[in-house]
Protein backbone atom coordinates (compact mmCIF):
# COMPACT_ATOMS: atom_id res chain seq x y z
CA UNK A 1 0.00 0.00 0.00
CA UNK A 2 2.70 2.46 1.09
CA UNK A 3 4.57 1.69 -2.15
CA UNK A 4 1.47 2.65 -4.17
CA UNK A 5 1.14 5.92 -2.21
CA UNK A 6 4.84 6.61 -2.80
CA UNK A 7 4.51 5.98 -6.55
CA UNK A 8 1.48 8.31 -6.75
CA UNK A 9 3.37 11.06 -4.87
CA UNK A 10 6.39 10.70 -7.19
CA UNK A 11 4.18 10.87 -10.32
CA UNK A 12 2.37 14.01 -9.06
CA UNK A 13 5.67 15.73 -8.15
CA UNK A 14 7.16 14.93 -11.57
CA UNK A 15 4.08 16.26 -13.37
CA UNK A 16 4.12 19.45 -11.25
CA UNK A 17 7.83 20.03 -11.87
CA UNK A 18 7.30 19.51 -15.60
CA UNK A 19 4.44 22.01 -15.67
CA UNK A 20 6.51 24.61 -13.86
CA UNK A 21 9.39 24.11 -16.28
CA UNK A 22 7.01 24.55 -19.25
CA UNK A 23 5.50 27.70 -17.79
CA UNK A 24 8.94 29.20 -17.16
CA UNK A 25 9.98 28.39 -20.72
CA UNK A 26 6.83 30.06 -22.09
CA UNK A 27 7.52 33.26 -20.15
CA UNK A 28 11.11 33.59 -21.32
CA UNK A 29 10.20 34.81 -24.81
CA UNK A 30 12.91 37.39 -25.35
CA UNK A 31 16.47 37.82 -24.22
CA UNK A 32 16.62 39.02 -20.64
CA UNK A 33 17.62 42.63 -19.99
CA UNK A 34 18.53 43.96 -16.51
CA UNK A 35 15.72 43.21 -14.13
CA UNK A 36 15.16 46.09 -11.69
CA UNK A 37 11.68 47.29 -12.50
CA UNK A 38 10.46 50.64 -11.26
CA UNK A 39 7.01 50.76 -9.68
CA UNK A 40 4.29 51.87 -12.07
CA UNK A 41 3.51 55.59 -11.86
CA UNK A 42 0.01 56.78 -11.17
CA UNK A 43 -0.80 58.15 -14.65
CA UNK A 44 -3.62 55.95 -15.75
CA UNK A 45 -1.93 54.97 -18.96
CA UNK A 46 0.85 52.55 -18.26
CA UNK A 47 3.31 51.32 -15.77
CA UNK A 48 6.35 53.47 -16.41
CA UNK A 49 9.67 51.68 -16.45
CA UNK A 50 13.00 53.10 -15.41
CA UNK A 51 15.59 53.43 -18.06
CA UNK A 52 17.78 50.41 -17.56
CA UNK A 53 14.97 48.52 -16.02
CA UNK A 54 12.55 46.78 -18.31
CA UNK A 55 12.97 43.16 -19.10
CA UNK A 56 11.55 41.96 -22.39
CA UNK A 57 9.37 39.73 -20.30
CA UNK A 58 7.65 42.62 -18.54
CA UNK A 59 7.32 44.53 -21.79
CA UNK A 60 5.68 41.54 -23.43
CA UNK A 61 3.40 41.10 -20.44
CA UNK A 62 2.26 44.71 -20.78
CA UNK A 63 1.75 44.31 -24.49
CA UNK A 64 -0.32 41.21 -23.85
CA UNK A 65 -2.44 43.30 -21.46
CA UNK A 66 -2.82 45.80 -24.32
CA UNK A 67 -1.12 48.58 -22.39
CA UNK A 68 1.32 50.84 -24.19
CA UNK A 69 4.80 50.58 -22.68
CA UNK A 70 6.94 53.60 -21.91
CA UNK A 71 10.34 53.38 -23.56
CA UNK A 72 13.45 55.49 -23.03
CA UNK A 73 14.97 57.39 -25.95
CA UNK A 74 18.09 55.23 -25.88
CA UNK A 75 16.00 52.09 -26.14
CA UNK A 76 14.29 53.43 -29.25
CA UNK A 77 17.71 54.33 -30.66
CA UNK A 78 18.77 50.76 -30.13
CA UNK A 79 15.55 49.25 -31.53
CA UNK A 80 15.90 51.36 -34.69
CA UNK A 81 19.69 50.85 -34.96
CA UNK A 82 20.24 54.55 -34.56
CA UNK A 83 17.28 55.46 -36.77
CA UNK A 84 18.97 53.92 -39.80
CA UNK A 85 15.88 52.90 -41.84
CA UNK A 86 13.42 55.63 -42.69
CA UNK A 87 9.98 54.41 -43.79
CA UNK A 88 8.56 57.80 -44.66
CA UNK A 89 7.33 61.04 -43.21
CA UNK A 90 4.08 62.97 -42.89
CA UNK A 91 2.55 65.90 -41.13
CA UNK A 92 3.19 64.51 -37.66
CA UNK A 93 6.83 63.52 -38.01
CA UNK A 94 9.20 60.89 -39.40
CA UNK A 95 8.64 57.12 -39.30
CA UNK A 96 11.54 54.65 -38.84
CA UNK A 97 11.69 50.88 -39.03
CA UNK A 98 12.89 48.98 -35.98
CA UNK A 99 12.79 45.71 -34.11
CA UNK A 100 12.38 44.63 -30.48
CA UNK A 101 15.14 42.38 -29.16
CA UNK A 102 12.77 39.40 -29.50
CA UNK A 103 12.52 40.02 -33.26
CA UNK A 104 9.09 41.69 -33.39
CA UNK A 105 9.23 44.41 -36.05
CA UNK A 106 8.10 47.92 -35.17
CA UNK A 107 7.55 51.34 -36.75
CA UNK A 108 8.70 54.29 -34.64
CA UNK A 109 7.06 57.63 -35.36
CA UNK A 110 9.11 60.52 -33.99
CA UNK A 111 6.63 63.34 -33.47
CA UNK A 112 6.79 67.08 -33.95
CA UNK A 113 6.50 68.37 -30.42
CA UNK A 114 3.70 70.65 -29.29
CA UNK A 115 5.64 72.13 -26.39
CA UNK A 116 7.77 71.12 -23.48
CA UNK A 117 5.72 72.17 -20.51
CA UNK A 118 4.20 69.98 -17.83
CA UNK A 119 0.65 70.39 -19.17
CA UNK A 120 1.80 69.16 -22.55
CA UNK A 121 3.25 66.03 -20.97
CA UNK A 122 -0.01 65.31 -19.17
CA UNK A 123 -1.97 65.82 -22.36
CA UNK A 124 0.42 63.55 -24.22
CA UNK A 125 -0.08 60.80 -21.60
CA UNK A 126 -3.85 61.20 -21.73
CA UNK A 127 -3.95 60.92 -25.52
CA UNK A 128 -1.55 57.98 -25.57
CA UNK A 129 -3.80 56.35 -23.04
CA UNK A 130 -6.78 56.77 -25.37
CA UNK A 131 -4.88 55.45 -28.37
CA UNK A 132 -3.52 52.56 -26.32
CA UNK A 133 -6.98 51.50 -25.20
CA UNK A 134 -8.32 51.19 -28.71
CA UNK A 135 -7.94 47.63 -29.82
CA UNK A 136 -9.49 46.39 -33.04
CA UNK A 137 -8.33 44.15 -35.84
CA UNK A 138 -8.64 47.05 -38.28
CA UNK A 139 -6.66 49.58 -36.23
CA UNK A 140 -2.85 49.73 -36.10
CA UNK A 141 -1.71 48.62 -32.68
CA UNK A 142 0.26 51.02 -30.49
CA UNK A 143 2.95 49.09 -28.59
CA UNK A 144 4.36 52.01 -26.67
CA UNK A 145 5.72 55.51 -26.57
CA UNK A 146 8.61 57.67 -25.50
CA UNK A 147 8.30 61.08 -23.94
CA UNK A 148 11.17 63.03 -22.40
CA UNK A 149 12.66 66.52 -22.52
CA UNK A 150 13.97 66.02 -26.00
CA UNK A 151 11.61 63.80 -27.91
CA UNK A 152 8.15 62.31 -28.21
CA UNK A 153 7.64 59.15 -30.21
CA UNK A 154 5.09 56.42 -30.76
CA UNK A 155 5.94 52.77 -31.29
CA UNK A 156 3.55 50.88 -33.57
CA UNK A 157 3.28 47.39 -34.92
CA UNK A 158 5.10 47.18 -38.26
CA UNK A 159 2.85 46.69 -41.26
CA UNK A 160 4.60 44.59 -43.89
CA UNK A 161 2.75 45.92 -46.91
CA UNK A 162 2.93 49.58 -45.93
CA UNK A 163 0.25 52.07 -46.92
CA UNK A 164 -2.69 51.51 -49.29
CA UNK A 165 -1.81 54.47 -51.55
CA UNK A 166 1.41 52.73 -52.60
CA UNK A 167 -0.65 49.84 -54.01
CA UNK A 168 -3.74 51.69 -55.18
CA UNK A 169 -1.95 54.15 -57.42
CA UNK A 170 0.92 51.99 -58.64
CA UNK A 171 1.05 50.66 -62.20
CA UNK A 172 1.38 47.04 -61.13
CA UNK A 173 -2.10 46.94 -59.46
CA UNK A 174 -1.33 43.67 -57.68
CA UNK A 175 -4.37 43.72 -55.38
CA UNK A 176 -7.41 41.92 -56.83
CA UNK A 177 -10.77 43.72 -57.01
CA UNK A 178 -12.34 41.32 -54.48
CA UNK A 179 -9.53 42.06 -52.04
CA UNK A 180 -10.04 45.81 -52.52
CA UNK A 181 -13.70 45.35 -51.59
CA UNK A 182 -12.64 43.49 -48.41
CA UNK A 183 -10.13 46.26 -47.68
CA UNK A 184 -12.88 48.90 -47.98
CA UNK A 185 -15.07 46.97 -45.53
CA UNK A 186 -12.15 46.53 -43.09
CA UNK A 187 -11.37 50.26 -43.13
CA UNK A 188 -15.06 51.07 -42.55
CA UNK A 189 -15.14 48.67 -39.59
CA UNK A 190 -12.05 50.28 -38.04
CA UNK A 191 -13.57 53.76 -38.31
CA UNK A 192 -16.96 52.51 -37.04
CA UNK A 193 -15.17 51.18 -33.96
CA UNK A 194 -13.49 54.56 -33.35
CA UNK A 195 -16.79 56.42 -33.73
CA UNK A 196 -19.23 54.10 -32.07
CA UNK A 197 -17.47 51.75 -29.64
CA UNK A 198 -14.45 53.56 -28.25
CA UNK A 199 -14.64 55.37 -24.94
CA UNK A 200 -14.03 58.27 -25.38
CA UNK A 201 -15.09 58.26 -29.02
CA UNK A 202 -12.37 59.14 -31.48
CA UNK A 203 -12.67 61.28 -34.61
CA UNK A 204 -9.77 60.55 -36.91
CA UNK A 205 -9.75 63.80 -38.97
CA UNK A 206 -7.33 62.45 -41.57
CA UNK A 207 -8.77 59.38 -43.31
CA UNK A 208 -6.95 58.82 -46.61
CA UNK A 209 -5.15 55.96 -48.40
CA UNK A 210 -1.81 56.95 -46.82
CA UNK A 211 -3.30 56.35 -43.37
CA UNK A 212 -4.48 52.84 -44.17
CA UNK A 213 -1.73 50.29 -43.64
CA UNK A 214 -1.72 46.70 -44.91
CA UNK A 215 -0.38 43.74 -42.99
CA UNK A 216 1.35 40.68 -44.45
CA UNK A 217 -2.03 39.35 -45.65
CA UNK A 218 -3.11 42.71 -47.05
CA UNK A 219 -5.66 43.15 -44.27
CA UNK A 220 -6.20 46.85 -43.68
CA UNK A 221 -5.56 48.71 -40.44
CA UNK A 222 -6.33 52.38 -39.96
CA UNK A 223 -3.30 54.34 -38.73
CA UNK A 224 -2.76 57.68 -37.01
CA UNK A 225 -6.05 57.84 -35.12
CA UNK A 226 -5.87 60.02 -32.02
CA UNK A 227 -2.91 61.98 -33.37
CA UNK A 228 -4.89 65.12 -34.17
CA UNK A 229 -5.03 65.96 -30.47
CA UNK A 230 -1.54 64.74 -29.71
CA UNK A 231 0.76 66.97 -31.65
CA UNK A 232 1.11 69.80 -34.12
CA UNK A 233 1.28 69.17 -37.78
CA UNK A 234 3.98 71.00 -39.68
CA UNK A 235 2.20 71.25 -42.99
CA UNK A 236 -1.03 72.31 -44.58
CA UNK A 237 -3.01 69.61 -42.80
CA UNK A 238 -3.90 71.77 -39.83
CA UNK A 239 -4.35 75.50 -39.97
CA UNK A 240 -5.05 78.18 -37.36
CA UNK A 241 -8.45 78.68 -39.00
CA UNK A 242 -9.40 75.21 -37.85
CA UNK A 243 -8.89 73.40 -41.16
CA UNK A 244 -7.93 69.82 -40.54
CA UNK A 245 -7.01 66.81 -42.59
CA UNK A 246 -5.65 66.53 -46.10
CA UNK A 247 -6.99 68.59 -49.02
CA UNK A 248 -9.06 66.39 -51.28
CA UNK A 249 -10.30 64.22 -48.39
CA UNK A 250 -11.31 66.84 -45.87
CA UNK A 251 -15.04 67.59 -45.44
CA UNK A 252 -16.47 70.87 -46.82
CA UNK A 253 -17.67 72.05 -43.39
CA UNK A 254 -14.03 72.81 -42.47
CA UNK A 255 -13.92 75.50 -45.15
CA UNK A 256 -17.54 76.51 -45.58
CA UNK A 257 -18.13 76.55 -41.83
CA UNK A 258 -21.80 75.86 -42.53
CA UNK A 259 -22.09 72.90 -40.15
CA UNK A 260 -20.42 71.88 -36.91
CA UNK A 261 -17.49 69.47 -37.11
CA UNK A 262 -18.53 65.99 -35.99
CA UNK A 263 -17.48 62.41 -36.66
CA UNK A 264 -19.27 62.80 -40.01
CA UNK A 265 -16.15 64.54 -41.32
CA UNK A 266 -14.49 61.10 -41.27
CA UNK A 267 -17.44 59.64 -43.19
CA UNK A 268 -16.86 62.24 -45.90
CA UNK A 269 -13.13 61.42 -46.07
CA UNK A 270 -13.94 57.71 -46.21
CA UNK A 271 -16.25 58.44 -49.17
CA UNK A 272 -13.39 60.14 -51.01
CA UNK A 273 -11.14 57.17 -50.24
CA UNK A 274 -13.85 54.81 -51.52
CA UNK A 275 -13.99 56.64 -54.88
CA UNK A 276 -10.25 56.09 -55.17
CA UNK A 277 -10.66 52.39 -54.39
CA UNK A 278 -13.37 52.04 -57.06
CA UNK A 279 -11.48 54.04 -59.64
CA UNK A 280 -8.07 52.72 -58.63
CA UNK A 281 -6.84 56.21 -59.31
CA UNK A 282 -6.35 59.49 -57.51
CA UNK A 283 -9.59 61.44 -57.42
CA UNK A 284 -7.95 64.54 -58.84
CA UNK A 285 -5.85 64.65 -61.96
CA UNK A 286 -4.72 67.76 -63.75
CA UNK A 287 -4.61 67.41 -67.54
CA UNK A 288 -1.86 68.76 -69.81
CA UNK A 289 -4.08 71.76 -70.61
CA UNK A 290 -4.51 72.32 -66.84
CA UNK A 291 -8.08 71.00 -67.02
CA UNK A 292 -9.25 69.37 -63.83
CA UNK A 293 -10.34 65.74 -63.97
CA UNK A 294 -12.24 65.07 -60.73
CA UNK A 295 -13.43 61.47 -60.50
CA UNK A 296 -16.19 61.86 -57.83
CA UNK A 297 -18.04 64.34 -60.07
CA UNK A 298 -17.73 61.97 -63.02
CA UNK A 299 -19.22 59.20 -60.87
CA UNK A 300 -22.17 61.42 -59.95
CA UNK A 301 -22.73 62.45 -63.61
CA UNK A 302 -22.77 58.82 -64.72
CA UNK A 303 -25.03 57.84 -61.84
CA UNK A 304 -27.50 60.59 -62.81
CA UNK A 305 -27.53 59.27 -66.37
CA UNK A 306 -28.08 55.73 -65.05
CA UNK A 307 -24.75 54.66 -66.53
CA UNK A 308 -22.72 53.94 -63.42
CA UNK A 309 -22.31 50.29 -64.36
CA UNK A 310 -21.01 51.09 -67.84
CA UNK A 311 -18.59 53.60 -66.44
CA UNK A 312 -17.27 51.07 -63.95
CA UNK A 313 -16.64 48.61 -66.75
CA UNK A 314 -15.19 51.04 -69.26
CA UNK A 315 -13.15 53.65 -67.46
CA UNK A 316 -12.22 51.74 -64.29
CA UNK A 317 -11.31 48.48 -66.01
CA UNK A 318 -13.69 46.50 -63.82
CA UNK A 319 -14.72 43.03 -65.02
CA UNK A 320 -18.36 41.99 -65.40
CA UNK A 321 -18.30 39.79 -62.27
CA UNK A 322 -17.19 42.75 -60.10
CA UNK A 323 -19.54 45.25 -61.69
CA UNK A 324 -22.36 45.04 -59.13
CA UNK A 325 -19.93 45.36 -56.23
CA UNK A 326 -18.24 48.38 -57.86
CA UNK A 327 -21.59 50.07 -58.50
CA UNK A 328 -22.57 49.52 -54.87
CA UNK A 329 -19.26 50.95 -53.62
CA UNK A 330 -19.68 54.00 -55.85
CA UNK A 331 -23.20 54.60 -54.53
CA UNK A 332 -22.03 54.25 -50.93
CA UNK A 333 -19.27 56.75 -51.70
CA UNK A 334 -21.89 59.19 -53.07
CA UNK A 335 -23.82 58.84 -49.80
CA UNK A 336 -20.71 59.40 -47.70
CA UNK A 337 -19.80 62.67 -49.43
CA UNK A 338 -23.17 64.37 -49.02
CA UNK A 339 -22.76 68.03 -48.17
CA UNK A 340 -25.16 67.79 -45.25
CA UNK A 341 -23.18 65.99 -42.50
CA UNK A 342 -26.27 64.34 -41.06
CA UNK A 343 -27.25 62.99 -44.49
CA UNK A 344 -24.02 60.94 -44.45
CA UNK A 345 -24.57 57.48 -42.99
CA UNK A 346 -22.94 56.46 -39.71
CA UNK A 347 -19.95 54.18 -40.31
CA UNK A 348 -21.69 51.07 -38.96
CA UNK A 349 -24.34 51.59 -41.65
CA UNK A 350 -21.61 52.10 -44.25
CA UNK A 351 -20.25 48.67 -43.26
CA UNK A 352 -23.69 47.10 -43.80
CA UNK A 353 -24.11 48.87 -47.13
CA UNK A 354 -20.74 47.65 -48.37
CA UNK A 355 -21.38 44.13 -47.17
CA UNK A 356 -24.64 44.07 -49.10
CA UNK A 357 -26.71 43.53 -45.96
CA UNK A 358 -28.94 46.45 -46.87
CA UNK A 359 -30.11 47.78 -50.21
CA UNK A 360 -28.44 51.09 -50.99
CA UNK A 361 -31.03 53.66 -52.00
CA UNK A 362 -30.25 56.20 -54.75
CA UNK A 363 -28.20 59.01 -53.19
CA UNK A 364 -29.16 62.67 -53.55
CA UNK A 365 -26.84 65.04 -55.39
CA UNK A 366 -23.62 65.58 -53.45
CA UNK A 367 -21.20 68.52 -53.82
CA UNK A 368 -24.05 71.02 -54.01
CA UNK A 369 -21.60 73.81 -53.26
CA UNK A 370 -20.07 73.22 -56.70
CA UNK A 371 -23.24 74.17 -58.53
CA UNK A 372 -24.31 77.69 -59.46
CA UNK A 373 -27.77 77.20 -57.88
CA UNK A 374 -26.10 76.55 -54.52
CA UNK A 375 -27.84 77.39 -51.31
CA UNK A 376 -26.64 75.65 -48.20
CA UNK A 377 -28.60 72.41 -48.47
CA UNK A 378 -31.27 71.76 -45.95
CA UNK A 379 -33.59 70.16 -48.44
CA UNK A 380 -32.43 66.54 -48.24
CA UNK A 381 -35.26 64.40 -47.05
CA UNK A 382 -34.65 60.86 -47.98
CA UNK A 383 -33.82 57.33 -46.98
CA UNK A 384 -30.23 56.24 -46.83
CA UNK A 385 -31.07 52.66 -47.62
CA UNK A 386 -33.86 50.17 -47.63
CA UNK A 387 -33.35 47.58 -44.98
CA UNK A 388 -33.85 44.08 -46.25
CA UNK A 389 -32.73 42.18 -43.16
CA UNK A 390 -35.34 40.83 -40.78
CA UNK A 391 -33.54 42.11 -37.66
CA UNK A 392 -33.65 45.67 -38.85
CA UNK A 393 -36.89 45.51 -40.79
CA UNK A 394 -38.50 48.22 -38.73
CA UNK A 395 -35.56 50.51 -38.46
CA UNK A 396 -35.17 52.29 -41.76
CA UNK A 397 -33.11 55.37 -41.25
CA UNK A 398 -34.96 58.46 -42.25
CA UNK A 399 -33.01 61.60 -42.53
CA UNK A 400 -34.62 64.65 -41.01
CA UNK A 401 -35.33 67.44 -43.43
CA UNK A 402 -33.43 69.80 -41.19
CA UNK A 403 -31.88 69.51 -37.79
N1 LIG B 1 3.19 51.03 -38.72
C1 LIG B 1 3.79 51.18 -39.90
N2 LIG B 1 4.31 50.11 -40.54
C2 LIG B 1 4.91 50.26 -41.75
N3 LIG B 1 5.05 51.43 -42.39
C3 LIG B 1 4.55 52.53 -41.80
C4 LIG B 1 3.90 52.47 -40.53
N4 LIG B 1 3.49 53.72 -40.20
C5 LIG B 1 3.86 54.51 -41.21
N5 LIG B 1 4.51 53.81 -42.18
C6 LIG B 1 5.07 54.32 -43.44
O1 LIG B 1 5.55 55.62 -43.21
C7 LIG B 1 4.98 56.51 -44.17
C8 LIG B 1 4.80 57.87 -43.50
O2 LIG B 1 3.73 57.79 -42.56
P1 LIG B 1 3.10 59.08 -41.91
O3 LIG B 1 1.91 58.64 -41.14
O4 LIG B 1 4.15 59.83 -41.18
O5 LIG B 1 2.70 59.96 -43.16
P2 LIG B 1 1.37 60.01 -44.02
O6 LIG B 1 0.47 58.90 -43.59
O7 LIG B 1 1.77 60.07 -45.45
O8 LIG B 1 0.76 61.40 -43.64
P3 LIG B 1 -0.03 61.81 -42.31
O9 LIG B 1 0.92 62.65 -41.54
O10 LIG B 1 -1.20 62.57 -42.78
O11 LIG B 1 -0.40 60.57 -41.57
C9 LIG B 1 3.68 55.85 -44.61
O12 LIG B 1 3.35 56.17 -45.92
C10 LIG B 1 3.99 54.38 -44.50
O13 LIG B 1 4.48 53.89 -45.72
MG1 LIG C 1 -0.03 58.52 -41.57
From TrEMBL:
Q: What is its main location?
A: membrane
Entry keywords, A to Z: ATP-binding, Kinase, Membrane, Nucleotide-binding, Serine/threonine-protein kinase, Signal, Transferase, Transmembrane, Transmembrane helix
**SUPFAM superfamilies, from UniProt?**
Protein kinase-like (PK-like)
- Which amino acids does the record list as binding ATP? 109
> Which residue ranges does the record assign to the Protein kinase domain?
81-368
Q: Which InterPro entries match?
A: Kinase-like_dom_sf, Prot_kinase_dom, Protein_kinase_ATP_BS, Ser/Thr_kinase_AS
MF annotations from Gene Ontology: ATP binding; protein serine/threonine kinase activity
Isomerase among keywords: no
Membrane topology, record value: Single-pass membrane protein
Record's GO cellular component terms: membrane
Q: Which PROSITE patterns match?
A: PROTEIN_KINASE_ATP, PROTEIN_KINASE_DOM, PROTEIN_KINASE_ST
Q: Which family does it belong to?
A: Belongs to the protein kinase superfamily.
Question: What is the protein name given in its UniProt record?
Answer: Protein kinase domain-containing protein
